[in-house]
Structures are given as C-alpha cells and as structure tokens.
Amino acid sequence: MSKDTELIPIRLSHLLRHCTVGAIVRGPEYLMTVKDIREWTDKKGVNAGRLITYVKRVCDVLEISQELREPPIAVELEKGLVDGVCIPAMRFPSWMRCTNPVCGMLYYKPWRYQKQKPLRCEHCEKHSVLEQVPWILVHPDGHMNDVPWHYLAHAEAKKRDQLQCREDRKESYLHLIDEGLLHRKLRCDRCSATSNFDSSIRIPYGNYNRQPWIKEPPDVTLGLPGDKVEPAFVLEINDARVHSAITKNALVIPPESRIRKGAVVDRLYQSSQKLQQLERAKTPLALKAALKTLATVFRCTIDEVEDAWKEIQNGYPYINENYTPGLLLEDEYKALLYEIPDMSEDEDFVTRRLTSPWKTMSVELPTREERLRKIIDIVSQLISVDRLKEIQILTSFQRLGGKLIPPDIVGQSKWLPAIELYGEGIFFTLKEKIIATWEKLPALQSRAEKFHRRYVNTSLHINPGLQVSPRFILLHTLAHLLIRQLETDAGYPAASLKERIYCTSGVTPMAGILVYVAVPDVVGSLGGLAELAEPRRFLLLLASAFDHAEWCSLDPVCSEHEGQGPGLLNRAACHACTLIPEPCCTYGNVLLDRVFIKGDATTGIPALLDNI
To answer: Where are the domains of the chain?
Structure first.
C-alpha cells in the first residue's frame, strides 16, 4: 500500500446510504468520493463482494435481475497492511484553498507535489494551512465535477488580455477572497480579472467527465451543438441535494427464511464451483467420482451429496414456488399473519401470535377504562416478531432530485450492492371493519385528497406505487407516534428503529404496521423490542401514542397548519410531535397528520377511537 493511501473505516450499513457510490465522505485528512462498483474488485479484477444467496423471492418481487453481493470488507493490520479488499475512493474536491483570509490562493491537487502535512500555502507569508474548497459542481443528470474556477474568475472579463487568459492547473494564480459573510471575490494574478463568486450560480455544462473518477471519453451522442442542456449548479458539499442514495428493502420470509443453514444441500447450493464439478460430469462414472470427491470435502456420505444434488436439480429451495413481481408488502403481510408450523428459533423469520392474550385484557380492565378498551378493540392482530432478516439493496443514486444513476454508472453491471440486516419487531393490524367505515367519511376523504394532489405534483422520490389515502396517512402517522413513544418509554434511540406500512383497500385490504430494528450483526438485536410486544406493555405504549396524537407543544399552530415540510405534505405534524430521524422513515417524513387520529371538530372529522 502506498504512503498516500488513506484508510477510512465505514459502517457496512452506511455504504448503502450516505457513504455509497458518488457520495462525499469526510476522512481524517481529506474529503473523498466513493468510486462506482466496477472498481470494487481485487487485484485480479474479480468481484470482491460475497454473494448473497437465497434471495430469489426478494429479487423477483422487487423486479431485480442482478445478483446481490455484499460490499467488499477489509481489515487494517499492523504497519499499514490490509487484509481484504477496500472500497476505492478518491480525494475530491480536487481544489484546495489557503485559509489565510487575505490570501485565499487556490491550488489544484497540491498533495501531488507537497509532502509535508498539513499542506501549506506557498504564496503567503504566513504559509497558512490549505483546506479543500467546500463547493462542487452538480448536475441533475447525475454528473459531479470540480467548480471551474478559471472560468468563473474570467466570467466578467472585458479586456483583451483577460479574455485571452488560458487555464493552467499546474500553476497557482487564482485567489478566492472572503469579503464579508456572504460575499466572495475571485481574482486572477496573471491578468487581474476579477468577478464575484455566488454559490447560487448556474453554469452551462456538457456531458464531459461525468464523475470525478471516470477517465473514459464522454458519450459523443450527448451534448451536441444545438441541444438543450440543463445547467449545472454550484453546491456546498454538505448540501443534501448533492447525493441521495435510492435503496430497496425486503424482509426474508418463508421458504427462504427456513433454509437449513449448514446442511449438505445448503453448502453445495452456495458453492458455484462445486456445482460446476457436478454439471461437468457427463457420464455416470464421472458423476460418481465427483460425488465421492465432494463427500470427502463435506465430510459426509456419497448418498447425502447425491440427495442434495437431486434437490438442487428439482429447484431447491424454490420447489413449486412462484412469485408475482411487485407484491412485496402483500407477501410480507401474509407471512406475518400466517402461523408457521414447526418453527425453529434459528430460522430467519420467527413470529409469536399474541392476539388471544391481547383480546383477553379487554375483559380484565376496570369499567372506567373505556379508552383502553377501545384501543384493544381496534387492534385486530398482535404479533411479536422475535427474529427477522432484512435485505437492503442499493439500486441507484441521484443528484438534485434528477436522473437515477445505477451503482456502476453505465447500467451494465450483473450485480448490485446489498447487505443482510438482522433484528426483531412488533407487528399489529387495525380492525378492517372499523377502518373501512371510518375512511369513507367525506371530511376525511376531502382532507386526504389535498394530500394526494400535492403528492402528485411533488418531485420527491418516495414510492412510485404509493396510494395516498386516509388509511395510509392514519397508519403512517400512528407508526411515527409509536416510534417516538418507544424512544421515550423504552429508551430505544429513534434512529435505530424502522417502519413498514402495510396498506391497501379493496378486495384484499391491509392495515398493518411493523416497527422493527435491524443491524448487520447476524446475532441481531438484544431482544428488547420483541418483549415490548407483550400485551400489557404494548397497550401502555399504544395508549401513550394515541395520547400524544392529541396535543403538540406547538399547538394550536401545528394542528391548524394547512401544509408544512417538503412539498407541504404534512399538516398537523412537526418535529415537536410526529417527525422522526430521516433513516427511520420509508416515506421521507411526509404524509403525516395527527388529525387523522385525534379528529378535528371544526372540520367535522371525528377521532378514530370515537368510531368504535
């Protein structure tokens, strides 16, 4: 490893979020940008990520045709040695600036010729420290590049020598001087050209150098003379619009969750090399020899290997299983409600039905506890999810809310980065008869219709198949209130919890909420969340969530709000009462409204519990 190499430890889960392809990551010394997955290989050019198996259902329902692989993992050893394959990144932005406010000299990649640390200015008397400029150029088509400082410095040039001044990145001759809190000026030492630098500027941008690490020539069919080309924007590196990772998530449910891990058939199925040995055996004699070899490797009998091979040939582990693309939540909903026979604790999807003891509590409550009795009555099913496995897949990223860019940039990769997360959760459904009657109220439908119109016109990338309805807004808001309550009462950090909303009307209606925690460790979480699904404890949590729907510290302003948040897609919901950390919410912290729970007498909307 070269002396210039900088190792930055990154959490596995972060590699699919804010530290993934095209994102800017802050290291100990420099800002970096992560290269695309075409370079996530070992020295021989072989893909370094582990293949994730038993995810055919996940891929089918998510309409993904590529393989799923974990990002490469490396461990730093002594003396700078590394065991494994690192995720490649490069220093970006390429320009550094003198921190002396009087100087502000700009340098292009000064780490190439300066050896001291930290890097220092060679032009000012103080020899001030250099730091990377905090601005970059970003395009809605996904491009990212350095700010063209020479172009901007001469944008207002009028004299002949200023117009003829040519860029030379080998020399340092441009200054970026702060003139107040929001005012900055660019100056060229060679021709004395000056111009004001405004970070809100838009710059004409062709399709060259689409990402900082890409060296191949641009697509000649793009950006031809006469074409209408959108301008690029100068943004600060910490602007949320610079990079947004687009991921898809799915739970692993039967039959994939019931795979016998470590069995002969499992070990054979996961080894493409050993399967090829059997496939190449064209004669009975050759097959017998291959089976004998594998029996020695697996330390089992020849018959066990032969039986495993026959299972795989017959379609293991998906024998007689067909999956309909797009029915992700519907399949999960059925699996959560279905009582799995002969379930083992080491499976990847373990549930306990608690509906019966939940309903029994209604009889045990004192007569005066009418509100608690209504809460018990509105919950149709209560399930403790003692163990679950979630697959999280990076499908693309975008900049400025524009074009979706695949992880390999060109869209030709045969695999996608994914991780396996393990955890537990609480799942419950609301009684369909009550919800079906409640959601038909004209005042509710009118309020939901305003949400729908705003959602249709927004540029937010949330969920293409989402149907904005009274049912969805109710479930989503209740899930947020429950997550906040778990943070308050149970000590769970809200950022560690996630939501899954199961919502449809019609022939096969759904009205369910799964609140869960999932981490990359195969051991999963510590079991505390599943314990909170116990009926008495969950009743206290849910009752507190309903109570907190009634009032916000910013009321009456919050309750009477006509629209707040991105796209005005929230009403009676703000940071003081309903919003949760961004990673927890599947829907971007929008489409929330406490009125769908607590009601609003002024608009004729009854409280949800008043319909029981």
So the answer is: 95-218+230-236, 260-314, 327-610
